[in-house]
């Protein structure tokens, strides 16, 4: 089976030649792998380990055409990003400081005009990536962000959380504006990348390890209408599958996601009480779970034998019961190559 055949069969509940897998690798881990395993020149880490799924990303930012560097001093860069924020960044650092949002007032954010979702410049690199994935016969999906996280980008995280609590009607209006923009990007991505036979992944980190950042009621009243509009719009445009990604404990959201037509959940983090085997049995024939392996505990601190013992029941359930595509959130520099390979070999042996 090709990677695409394998993933589509798993999503449909059909038999597969081997269990499909989805992982993404931090640059530091890839560098360690290259040092320790010395693969042939030109072999990527994804191909070396047989990763089956790829995610293709268009330029979805609301103000992507207005990005510019404003200042450079003593290793710092001050720039305006595609979400209208003025940021201060330091070379080599992962995080940044937000100095200013796109508009100083609530109404200003709501009335701000987003750049055209159909602008060809958003999709040039995206289309090249899609063509490469087709040539490699990967199960490639197009990606959009979600209305919770992306709205915090333009409004500011703290301000928007206060809006949700104090003025849910305004928070809903802004979430709806963002949902409409993201849906437009998704529909352009589906068409330009020819992803109808796979579909769309929406990434919207709306939870932490203890639950949602907002109340269930706020999710239902402020965000669920936009979620439903995005899923319905993508399905009506021909997307076969719609997968939802959020870090953290999203168990309270799952019945709502099933109701609006979501097909898959990722990354299903064990540290956030997301037990992939238990959830699969609870939502049999309703959801496919993509992930489930502990990349922050066992893979980091365990021995290869610990890793095998952790992964084996997940792989066994995936093989015997279906509805699971084994994977992690990501593979970072704190995971050894030996532990990753113990995990990978356990999946292949199932």
Order of helices and strands: HEHHEEEEEHHEHHHEEEHEHEHEHHEH
Unreliable residue stretches: none
The CATH level-2 architecture of the largest domain is identified as Alpha-Beta Barrel
How helix-rich are the residues, as a percent range? 40-55%
Q: How many distinct beta strands?
A: 14
Question: What features would you describe in this structure?
Answer:
This protein is of the alpha/beta class. The protein has 2 domains: 3-62 and 103-349, Alpha-Beta Barrel (TIM Barrel); 63-101, no CATH class. The protein contains 14 helices and 14 strands. The protein has helices spanning 3-12, 27-37, 45-49, 106-111, 124-135, 147-155, 157-166, 168-193, 216-236, 254-260, 276-282, 298-301, 304-321, 337-349, and strands spanning 21-22, 53-57, 68-73, 76-80, 86-90, 97-100, 139-145, 199-203, 207-208, 211-212, 241-245, 264-266, 288-292, 324-327. An 8-stranded parallel β-sheet has the order 1-14-13-12-11-8-7-2. It has a 4-stranded antiparallel β-sheet with strand order 3-4-5-6, with no helix packed on it. It has a two-stranded antiparallel sheet with strand order 9-10. Helix 10 links the parallel strand 11 and strand 12. The longest helix has 26 residues, at 168-193. The chain is globular, with a radius of gyration of 20 Å. It starts with a helix and ends with a helix.
SSE layout and pairing:
Layout: H1 3-12, E1 21-22, H2 27-37, H3 45-49, E2 53-57, E3 68-73, E4 76-80, E5 86-90, E6 97-100, H4 106-111, H5 124-135, E7 139-145, H6 147-155, H7 157-166, H8 168-193, E8 199-203, E9 207-208, E10 211-212, H9 216-236, E11 241-245, H10 254-260, E12 264-266, H11 276-282, E13 288-292, H12 298-301, H13 304-321, E14 324-327, H14 337-349
Parallel strand pairs: 1-14, 2-7, 7-8, 8-11, 11-12, 12-13, 13-14
Antiparallel strand pairs: 3-4, 4-5, 5-6, 9-10
Helix pairs in contact: 6-7, 6-8, 7-8, 8-9, 13-14
């Amino acid at each position: 089976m090709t990677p695409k055949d394998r993933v589509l069969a798993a999503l449909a509940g059909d038999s597969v030649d081997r269990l499909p897998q989805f992982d993404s690798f931090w640059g530091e881990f890839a560098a360690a792998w290259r040092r320790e395993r010395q693969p042939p020149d030109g072999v990527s880490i994804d191909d070396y380990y047989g990763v089956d799924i790829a995610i293709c990303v268009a330029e979805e930012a609301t103000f992507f055409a207005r990005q510019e560097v404003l200042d450079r001093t003593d290793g710092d860069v001050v720039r305006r990003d595609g979400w209208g924020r003025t940021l201060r960044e330091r070379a080599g650092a992962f995080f940044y400081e937000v100095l200013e949002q796109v508009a100083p007032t609530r109404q200003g954010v709501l009335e701000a005009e987003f750049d055209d979702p159909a602008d060809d410049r958003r999709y040039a690199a995206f289309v090249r990536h899609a063509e490469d994935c087709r040539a490699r016969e990967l199960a490639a999906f197009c990606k959009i962000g979600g209305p919770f996280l992306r709205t915090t980008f333009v409004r500011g995280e703290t301000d928007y959380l206060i809006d949700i609590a104090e003025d849910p009607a305004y928070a809903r209006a802004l979430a709806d504006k963002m949902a409409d923009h993201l849906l437009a990007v998704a529909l352009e991505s589906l068409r330009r990348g020819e992803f109808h036979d796979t579909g769309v992944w929406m990434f919207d980190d709306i939870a932490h390890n203890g639950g949602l950042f907002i109340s269930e009621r706020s999710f239902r009243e402020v965000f669920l209408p936009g979620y439903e509009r995005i899923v319905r719009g993508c399905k009506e445009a021909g997307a076969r599958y719609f997968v939802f990604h959020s870090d953290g404990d999203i168990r309270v959201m799952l019945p709502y996601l099933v109701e609006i037509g979501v097909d898959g959940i990722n990354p299903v983090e064990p540290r956030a009480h997301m037990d992939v085997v238990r959830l699969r049995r609870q939502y049999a024939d309703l959801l496919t779970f993509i992930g489930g392996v502990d990349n922050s505990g066992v893979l980091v601190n365990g021995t290869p034998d610990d890793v095998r013992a952790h992964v084996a029941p997940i792989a066994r359930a995936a093989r015997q019961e279906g509805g699971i595509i084994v994977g992690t959130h990501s593979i970072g520099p704190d995971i050894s190559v030996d532990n990753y390979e113990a995990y990978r070999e356990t999946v292949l042996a199932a």
